[in-house]
Every structure is written in C-alpha cells, then in structure tokens.
C-alpha cells in the first residue's frame, strides 16, 4: 500500500534511507564475500560493467570511479552487448534492480561463454541474473512498485561506493551514516524541488549538464524527467555542450547543472556560457557553491552522489504530478523489460 503517500514513487523516495541502511548493513555482514569480489576486480584484466537504464547510470558511475583508480573498466549499455568481446581474465559486473532484464542476461551469457567471470548486483534474491553469476551481491531496497527506479538507484550507488571503499582499503564504517544524510536531504529539498519541478514541467526541452562523476547523475536526472513527466531532456558532458548542443539555447531554455563539488570552476564557465544566451539555470551543488543560477540547491556530503540522487528524483516527481500525470505508471513503459 501507499501508506498515506499519494504515489508509490514518492513513498519509495522516502524509503531510500532505510533501503541504503539495510543494504550497507547487509554488505557489512557479507564482508568476506565483498572482499573476495574486490580481489577479483583487482586481479582482473578488465572490468566490464553492464546494465540498462538507471542501472546503467549506476554502472557508469562505478566504471568511471574504477578508471580513476587506474583500472581498465568498460561500461556497456546492456542492449549493445554485442559490441564487446570478453576474454578470459575479464570480469563483468551486471547491475539490475529486477535481476530479470533480458539484455543484461544475454550480455552476461555471451561474456561467460567468452571466458569472463560474472558478478551481479540485484535487488531480488536468486533472480535470473543472480543465478547465472559467479558472485551474487544483493541490495536490500525492498520491493519497488513505481516504474521509475528511485530508492534502488540510490542503493546501487551506495553498494558501489562500499565496493570502492573496500577496493581502496578505506573505512567502510563511514558509510553507516549515509542513510541519515539522505533523510536530511529529502527533508531539506522537498519544497525547492517542487518549485523546480513545476517550472521544468512547463518546458519542452531541458539540458542536464555534468562533468566527471556528476555526468552519470545528470544522465539519470534527464532519464527520470523524460520517463515520468514527458519532457524531452538531454544530458551532456558540460564541456561537450560547446560542440553543438549550445546552439539550441535561447532565452528561457532550462539548463540543470549537476555539480558534485569536484569540477565546480569548469562548470561555472559552462554556466556562464549558457547564461549569456539567456538560459534559465538550475544548479544542484554539493560542497562547493555556484554563482548566478536562478535557483540553487546546495548540500554538503562526503558522498555527493548519494545526496544528489533523491534530489533529481524529486524534481522529476514534482514535474510529473504538476502536469497531472501518474508517475507510478508512465505510458509505454514496463517495470521489467523481458523482450530484446
Ligand atoms: O531491473 P533493471 O534495473 O535491470 O531495469 C533497468 C531499466 O529498465 C530501468 O532502470 C529503467 O530505466 C527505469 N524505469 C528507470 O527509472
């Protein structure tokens, strides 16, 4: 049941703190398995990360992090799996909420045949993808009814951050406070995300810009608002926007900038370029503020992605409901995609 919430989507966004808490506790109790997985990653020739939709965005986030740490990691969109030939010595990480997405399943079957080992991260015990994996990791987000992935995305990010900490020999205990940060963020941004969502719902097109690790989050923000509010949104690496996309920008064109605090100065340049053409600027910043945005959401966290995640979801949610749509049942979409 919706337990007093108007939609499953908003209920599930509010369940994110618990989902993350349960997942982190689950990972701590399975620390031997996580360490084994980390060793496999360390010893692999290449780490291929595969997923679809939102799960692909979580995978891209992780893959970029691995690349930064010096690993050879290749992110692939599940439905494009045929472009990659795996080899013995490779490891593939399959990310899927349902654990049933057919393209992910086909992708891991192919890579397994080619000699790769498979790790899965799913939200359903003994899901099809888990059953075909050498190592099964689980998020503990509980059932997600809304078609839009919300708490499961935040939980995927938390799981992958945990794995990154273990890979680096970092301190996993600091992840235990993540759920509190998510709860505080949701309380803090509910009103402002509603305002932004209402404004964006009136637009025909939106750019979501990010750089570095905030790019996958920009991609997720754009997917979410497209999916449930039917507003065309495109995510771009902010620097790449100069190579074509900026020609669309004119007075009132909305640009959402996701700033995780790492590349703020460069993003600020992009903001100014957009602003000079009359763009309406919305920024979601963590740890470092930006200047000259029309509306800024500012947060602080050691794990920027985790707090940005509910913000972009809430913006999409409010854009959808302000247009009178049911965000739980977007047209043309199924919760689980089992056809190729
Ligand atoms: O169950 P999965 O994580 O494999 O699903 C993948 C995508 O179908 C899914 O994330 C989809 O993009 C969501 N509806 C996005 O909100």
UniProtKB/TrEMBL annotation:
It catalyses: D-fructose 6-phosphate + L-glutamine = D-glucosamine 6-phosphate + L-glutamate. Residues 37-177, 196-330 form the SIS domain. The keyword Cytoplasm applies. One of its GO terms (biological process) is UDP-N-acetylglucosamine metabolic process. GO terms for cellular component: cytoplasm. Its EC number is 2.6.1.16. One of its GO terms (molecular function) is glutamine-fructose-6-phosphate transaminase (isomerizing) activity. Keywords: Aminotransferase, Cytoplasm, Glutamine amidotransferase, Repeat, Transferase. It is found in: Cytoplasm. The active site is at 335 (for fru-6p isomerization activity). It comes from the Archaea. Its main location: cytoplasm. Homodimer. Catalyzes the first step in hexosamine metabolism, converting fructose-6P into glucosamine-6P using glutamine as a nitrogen source. This is Glutamine--fructose-6-phosphate aminotransferase [isomerizing]. It comes from Sulfurisphaera javensis.
């Amino acid at each position: 049941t919706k337990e007093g919430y108007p939609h499953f989507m908003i209920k599930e966004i509010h369940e994110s703190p618990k989902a993350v808490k349960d997942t982190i506790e689950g990972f701590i109790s399975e620390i031997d398995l996580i360490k084994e997985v980390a060793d496999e990653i360390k010893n692999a020739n290449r780490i291929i990360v595969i997923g679809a939709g939102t799960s692909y965005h979580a995978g891209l986030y992780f893959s970029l992090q691995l690349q930064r740490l010096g690993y050879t990691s290749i992110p692939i969109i599940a439905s494009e799996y045929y472009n990659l030939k795996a080899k013995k010595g490779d490891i593939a990480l399959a990310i899927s909420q349902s654990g049933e997405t057919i393209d992910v399943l086909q992708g891991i079957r192919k890579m397994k045949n080619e000699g790769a080992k498979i790790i899965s991260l799913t939200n359903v015990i003994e899901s099809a993808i888990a059953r075909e994996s050498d190592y099964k990791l689980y998020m503990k987000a509980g059932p997600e009814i809304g078609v839009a992935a919300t708490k499961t995305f935040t939980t995927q990010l938390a799981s992958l951050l945990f794995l990154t900490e273990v890979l680096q020999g970092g301190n996993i205990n600091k992840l235990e406070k993540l759920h509190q940060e998510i709860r505080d963020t949701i309380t803090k941004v509910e009103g402002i995300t509603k305002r932004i969502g209402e404004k964006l719902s009136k637009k025909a097109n939106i750019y979501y810009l990010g750089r570095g690790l905030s790019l996958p989050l920009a991609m997720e923000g754009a997917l979410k608002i497209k999916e449930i509010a039917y507003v065309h949104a495109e995510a771009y690496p902010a620097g790449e926007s100069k190579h074509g996309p900026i020609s669309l920008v004119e007075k009132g064109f909305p640009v959402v900038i996701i700033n995780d605090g790492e590349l703020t100065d460069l993003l600020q340049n992009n903001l100014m370029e957009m602003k000079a053409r009359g763009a309406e600027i919305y920024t979601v910043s963590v740890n470092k503020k930006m200047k000259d945005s029309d509306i800024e959401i500012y947060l602080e966290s050691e794990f920027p992605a985790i707090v940005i995640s509910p913000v972009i979801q809430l913006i999409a949610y409010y854009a959808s409901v302000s247009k009178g749509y049911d965000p739980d049942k977007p047209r043309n979409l199924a919760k689980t995609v089992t056809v190729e």
